[in-house]
Amino acid sequence: MLELKSLHKSYKMGSNYLHVLKGINFKVNEGELVAIMGSSGSGKSTLLNILGMLDSADKGSYFLDKIEIKNLDETKAAKYRNEFLGFVFQSFNLINYKNAVENVALPLYYRGISRKKRQTEALNFLQKVGLSNWSTHLPSELSGGQKQRVAIARALVSNPKVLLADEPTGALDSKTSNEVMSIIQKINNEGKTILVVTHEEEIAKMCKRVVKLKDGLIIEDKYIKQKLL
Fold first, then answer.
1. pLDDT band at 189, cuts 50/70/90?
2. Looking at residue 71, what is its pLDDT?
3. What is the DSSP-derived secondary structure letter of residue 205?
4. How far apart, in whole angstroms, are the C-alpha atoms of residue 36 and residue 2?
5. Gap between the Cα atoms of 75 and 77, Å rounded
6. Cα distance between residue 53 and residue 161, in whole Å
7. Stated pTM of the model
């Protein structure tokens, strides 16, 4: 489903270069739920940006659904992102002046789906995350956990092959974090491939596999006994 081979990434810092990823080899099969862990500066955000086609590697290969992702202009990158990937962010990234159903429907708008079908699909996915009764509420009228559930519904509405979740519980308390991870587990159990970037051990334990980064290298990659919610 997703494979990285000898991936390197550096950034220019003044007259020097900061070598952030130092030869990452990493494969994720369809239907996996993987936690990517690492402290600040470990390279996990850079790795996620490359996986999400928001940045590109200097050396090495990235295959997504057997397609090599390289030398993409922004138009093609946006097309692949829309087709293959769903994103969930720590800060939710909802549009404040649009209600829940409008936020969820947004990816379908960019795909040219009719208004009626967008509305139907968005309501279906809000129901999936337990928020059908909140469809007409603005983000300012929702709790943190509800906002994240709207964000998850939006990420799923276009049926991506892979869901990338960047610190999805980072802005939430423990109880709400568990509720969000329970939804992520449920979506994964339905067959969706999900990668969760987190610095929290408790969140990682709710995944099926943990990959740990340190100083731009994978130092641990193991399957674990998942904590079910």
1. very high
2. 81
3. T
4. 14
5. 6
6. 14
7. 0.92
